[in-house]
């Protein structure tokens, strides 16, 4: 009997190896539909082998809806894990000869390439099996959600969650810094890099395009390969943290986590104010390359990202992700770590983690098994294609009938809030700069018809307009020209040396026998000018920076943003304390309505101090809406689609930000009414749609 069993085992093992090779070869010749039906056929055949083996060697089953830790892998294999390796068994546990060549047996129920009644029956059976598997998977997810909530209650909330809170806070802080850094360096970088107005505008928007692509990509990947080991902070940190929080703690502590975005803005504002205006923090290599302090600021802004990466290496993967993907032991070990860490910190190290088995979810798809003999490049290409297909399926699943209405509602709310918030927050500083510019231009001095001879200018010339002047044998030495305009003027036998200019232009002027030595008065500063026997020697290359010229303006920009981000603090505190008491929808809709009303006060902002006060008011109110929206988005989707949906919606948010910024900026200096009406209308629409979303307070995490 033992010899018979060994022969049978050898036969089964050989059949598996042969069938695996057959499947690899056949996959090159037949279509995807045939492969799918083949998988179902081979799965049913292999199940019969397992039933025979079970008669000889009974195995330990599940208990209370879960699996024993030692049998978790075997349980997952029973649910379809071996379907890839059992192609080619017929009804009598014998391999049909034609199957060695990839030809399906007529009576086996496989779909034929030619179609016909057999293929229709097989196709119907295939969809039936898929429907049954999906129903089983959904049932497993519901059971896991309930059991997981009970386990988190036993683990408690303590040292582990707070440690993870600060680590993920660094990642969110880094994202907040990234939003502000371009706006802070742009006034300096545009001079250092000689940026034109179109390029300057594109540089300001490109960060949002990058975040849009990153949110979409990393969010989708996090549902397939894990939360911890990849980038893309905003789409992932909220989902990651929520999967360690019990129901009664989730709303509050996710809102506390949002505070780190504000801290990132404060950090960026403080560092910009402390570093960028200090023009002495620089060096240059000749006149072509200059390393100014704004580049130091960019390096300093990378510190939160580096700290987040280093800290995340000490944090575990989400146990919910492991359990959703059938990895029982890994998930159990992490939950035990959470329990033990919290109990030791609370002074109860003797408490034992009582959970022995946890429900895992039935797996429906796996990455392609390409085999070891497949070329490396082809193997990776197939894996990437398989991963891309799974990501696409996850995105499409967000628009299935079960989630379609929720997804479209959230898309509308995310879009309207982002359009108004980012549009207004960028429009505020631009309006302040426009007010400053108007005030500056009001002090402009105009000189007309002057004649200047044999004079040496060695002092700063600023904010002046000279019309139809005549300059003879004058010297301009070691000076700065700021916002100077010379129009219809004549320069005869003049000498220019060591000149640095900003916003200076010569229009319709004539230069006769004049010499330019070591200046930045390039020909592009001379519009429709005539040069007669004039020479340019040793021109200053690149764009020269002079931070002392714009110190007050820089101080104002950084100080305004510092106050704007600091004003968010009260809104963060209120939303965190009330999120679990009044509910997500009331917080979201109520804050949006109040933000909408506050927009109309912008009509009365005609001074710098007035605009700053209104900026702080709007930011402090609207932050509660963002916190509620983050929480409700996390809670409305199941674990296997959570970061995909969050990433997609966050990408839409950045697209709306680009549109809002572009539209609102186009009205600076023209009218205030249109941007205000746009923002108020968008917020009103968003608050109305928010009331149509389902309330998630008090529900277990799907």
Description:
With 702 residues, the protein is α/β, with parallel strands linked by helices. Among the domains are: 137-361, Growth Hormone, Chain: A; 445-549, Pectate Lyase C-like (3 Solenoid). It is 60% helix and 10% strand. It is built from 20 helices and 16 strands. The protein has helices at residues 2-26, 32-56, 72-81, 117-155, 159-192, 197-225, 233-242, 247-275, 293-301, 303-312, 319-324, 328-345, 376-397, 404-441, 551-566, 568-582, 584-599, 608-636, 642-665, 673-690; strands at residues 283-285, 289-291, 445-448, 451-453, 456-457, 461-467, 470-472, 475-487, 490-492, 495-502, 505-507, 510-512, 515-519, 526-527, 530-532, 535-537. The strands form three sheets. Strands 3, 5, 6, 8, 10, 11, 13, 14 and 16 form a nine-stranded parallel β-sheet that branches. A hairpin with a 3-residue loop joins strand 1 and strand 2 (289-291). Helix 5 (159-192) packs antiparallel against helix 6, helix 5 packs parallel to helix 8 and helix 7 (233-242) packs antiparallel against helix 19 (642-665). The chain is elongated and about 95 Å long. The protein starts with a helix and ends in a 12-residue tail after the last helix. The relative contact order is 0.11.
């Amino acid at each position: 009997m033992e010899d018979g069993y060994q022969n049978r085992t050898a036969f089964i093992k050989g059949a598996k190896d042969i069938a695996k090779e057959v499947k690899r070869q056949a996959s090159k010749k037949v279509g995807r539909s045939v492969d799918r039906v083949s998988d179902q056929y081979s799965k049913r055949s292999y199940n019969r082998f397992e039933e025979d083996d079970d008669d000889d060697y009974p195995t330990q089953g599940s208990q209370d809806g879960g699996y024993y830790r030692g049998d978790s892998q075997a349980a997952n294999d029973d649910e379809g894990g071996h379907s890839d390796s059992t192609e080619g068994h017929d009804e009598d546990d014998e391999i049909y000869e034609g199957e060695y060549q990839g030809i399906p047996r007529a009576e086996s129920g496989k779909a034929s390439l030619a179609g016909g009644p057999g293929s229709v029956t097989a196709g119907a059976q295939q969809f039936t099996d898929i429907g049954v598997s999906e129903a089983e998977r959904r049932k497993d997810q519901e059971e896991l959600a309930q059991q997981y909530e009970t386990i988190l209650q036993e683990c408690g909330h303590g040292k582990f969650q707070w440690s993870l809170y600060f680590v993920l806070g660094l990642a969110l802080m880094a994202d907040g810094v990234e939003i502000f850094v371009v706006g802070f360096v742009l006034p300096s970088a545009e001079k250092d890099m000689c940026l034109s107005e179109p390029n300057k505008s594109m540089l300001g928007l490109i960060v949002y395009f990058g975040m849009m692509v990153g949110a979409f990509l990393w969010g989708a990947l996090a549902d397939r390969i894990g939360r911890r080991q990849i980038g893309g902070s905003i789409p992932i940190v909220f989902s990651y943290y929520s999967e360690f929080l019990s129901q009664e703690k989730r709303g509050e502590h996710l809102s506390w986590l949002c505070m780190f975005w504000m801290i990132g803005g404060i950090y960026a504002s403080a560092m910009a104010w402390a570093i960028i205006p200090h023009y002495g923090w620089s060096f240059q290599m000749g006149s072509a390359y200059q390393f100014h302090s704004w580049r130091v600021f960019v390096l300093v802004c990378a510190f939160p990202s580096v700290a987040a990466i280093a800290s995340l290496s000490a944090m575990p993967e989400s146990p919910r992700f492991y359990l959703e993907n059938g990895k029982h032991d890994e998930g159990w070990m992490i939950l035990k770590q959470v329990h033990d860490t919290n109990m030791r910190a609370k002074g109860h190290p003797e408490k034992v983690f009582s959970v022995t088995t946890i429900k895992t979810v039935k797996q429906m798809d796996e990455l392609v098994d390409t085999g070891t003999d497949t070329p490396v490049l082809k193997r990776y290409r197939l894996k990437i294609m398989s991963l891309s297909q799974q990501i696409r399926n996850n995105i499409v699943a967000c628009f299935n009938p079960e989630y379609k209405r929720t997804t479209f509602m959230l898309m509308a709310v995310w879009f309207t809030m982002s359009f108004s918030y980012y549009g207004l927050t960028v429009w505020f500083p631009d309006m302040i700069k426009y007010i400053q510019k108007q005030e500056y231009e009001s002090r402009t001095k105009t000189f007309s018809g002057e004649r200047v001879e044999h004079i040496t200018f060695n002092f700063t010339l600023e904010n002046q307009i000279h019309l139809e002047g005549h300059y003879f044998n004058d010297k301009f030495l070691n000076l700065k020209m700021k916002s100077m305009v010379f129009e219809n003027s004549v320069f005869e036998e003049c000498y220019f040396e060591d000149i640095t200019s900003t916003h200076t232009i010569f229009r319709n002027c004539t230069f006769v026998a004049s010499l330019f030595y070591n200046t930045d008065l390039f020909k592009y500063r001379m519009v429709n000018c005539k040069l007669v026997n004039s020479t340019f020697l040793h021109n200053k290359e690149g764009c020269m920076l002079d931070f002392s010229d714009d110190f007050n303006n820089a101080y104002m920009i950084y100080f305004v943003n510092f106050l704007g981000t600091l004003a968010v603090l009260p809104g963060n505190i209120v939303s965190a304390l009330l999120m679990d008491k009044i509910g997500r929808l009331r917080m979201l809709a109520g804050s949006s309505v109040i933000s909408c009303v506050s927009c109309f006060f912008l009509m009365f902002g005609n001074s710098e101090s007035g605009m700053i006060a209104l900026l702080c008011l709007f930011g402090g109110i609207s932050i509660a809406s963002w916190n509620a929206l983050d929480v409700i988005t996390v809670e409305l989707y199941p674990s296997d689609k959570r970061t995909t949906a969050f990433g997609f919606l966050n990408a839409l948010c950045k697209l709306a930000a680009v549109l809002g910024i572009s539209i609102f900026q186009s009205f600076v200096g023209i009218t205030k009414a249109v941007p205000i009406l746009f923002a108020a209308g968008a917020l009103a629409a968003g608050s109305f749609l928010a009331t149509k979303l389902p309330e998630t307070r008090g529900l277990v995490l799907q």
